[in-house]
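@channel sequence for tomorrow's demo:
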Amino acid sequence: MLRCDAVNEALRKSISLVAECDTISDGILRIATEFRYPDGSHVDVFLDQSSSPYILSDLGETAAYLREVGIKPWASRKRRNIVADVCRRLRINQNDGQLQIEFPGMDQDAFADAVLRLGQACIRISDLSLAVRHRSPSDFKDQVQDFIDSHQFQYEVDHKLLGSKGNEVRIDFKIDGPRPQSASLVQTLSAADSNTARHQAEDAFARWYDINEQRNGNSFLTVYDSSSDAFREPDLRRLQDFSQLIRFPAQQQLFLEALRSQNPGA
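structure tokens (generated this afternoon):
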């Protein structure tokens, strides 16, 4: 049976965080760690010893990796929050797209700790690429919310109204208009398969039908994911009976115009 002291000794001898180390321009050390990005490539960290304290950085390679797979890590509020949370928990600084840690020069324990924390941060942030591959309806809703945010509309998420039978009906967004009685109500749809898409379209139709008598000058907008071909034309045509259909982000200009028609000062 292994005891803790034997485990510690075995791991010290057998496990290294560093695959290789070399010197690049300006005397900066490139350290290829045993951490891996989702594509299997080594996570490199870079040590700048030209000032005190020393700076350990990824030199923006994690952000570059995400951009190469089509993901902008700071393009949405949800992604920014994920990156900020990882950095806060691992005590990482962000500087112009780079992940950095400062530590006292010649302190080997602090250096080892910095390599471990920075390597973990690079992995966790690069895993955004895996999350986007498995896009969910909530991801699409977040994308729509980021668009509304970016144009500085005043809005409410998960707005609740009273339906025709006295039931509570929740709509994804209520974007305020120029008068208290004037607003754009927005329901989002995103599905990876036709069965889910049909159920979502039926649910959205039921919501619009339930609150149609309480429209009160509000506009109804159904915003569906233009990256998916799962929605059937008959289901979409039914939704047009009560709402304006907008493909997003393909028709984001049309979406903006629809919101501004209720928000002329936006």
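heads up for whoever presents: The mean pLDDT is 86.
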